[in-house]
Amino acid sequence: MLCARKSSEPSVLHVPSERHKNLVELRWNNILTEMRERAPDVLDFMATVAIPKLKENDGRQVMPLCTAYGILMNVRCRELSLVQKINAVLLGVGGATKRTFERLNKSGITQSRESFRNIMDNLGSNLSSIIKAKVDSGQELRVVFDNFDFRILTNIILCNHRNSDMHWIAQHVTFDRVPSSHLDDSKPSVPNIKDFDNINYLVSKTELDQQRDNIIILSLLPMCS
Questions:
Q1: How far apart are CA 91 and CA 217, in angstroms?
Q2: In the predicted model, is pLDDT for residue 210 greater than 80?
Q3: Which of 147, 148, 146, 141 is nearest to 173 (CA)?
Q4: pTM over 0.70
Q5: What is the DSSP track for 21-59?
């Protein structure tokens, strides 16, 4: 049973809090496979009504079909919330407002903004050990600070209502994806640009497709905020 809590083979849509780190491993084909193997009637109905060309191997149709399936299954069982958690992260990182979260949460499209914060806390729960492992492996640590100072003035000063000096600070840690400490800073690695073999540095078709998908997501986020 897809909705059974203690099933030996739970639904791929069931992602408890201790498995939030697995959200980065989302594969739409896994959801599609579950529909084919465990809910074939639902797949046939949805494909016939909404996406009749699914059988022609058009990959662009997989994501909307799986999203619709995830919304329907979440209405049936609130614990089947993989799609809603992914949407919550996309909306939260994109700066969606609380009102947007509330409207989409009522429609079963996303989880609440509080759930988004809990997901992010779970994802960063072992951040210290990750940073320590990278430093131990020889990667160079960089800590970036950004501060924002401002004053809040009051019209009428009372004992519990005074002018305030606010000092906010944000910080994050970065590591170089590609090590560069061994490179020469005094001159280019390739003196003549004509000798530079740039074919090894051009993006592949897969990377271009991924970039296109990312741009689509980033373009849609302001529309939801």
A1: 10
A2: yes
A3: 141
A4: no
A5: GGGGG--HHHHHHHHHHH-HHHHHHHHHHT-TTGGGT-G
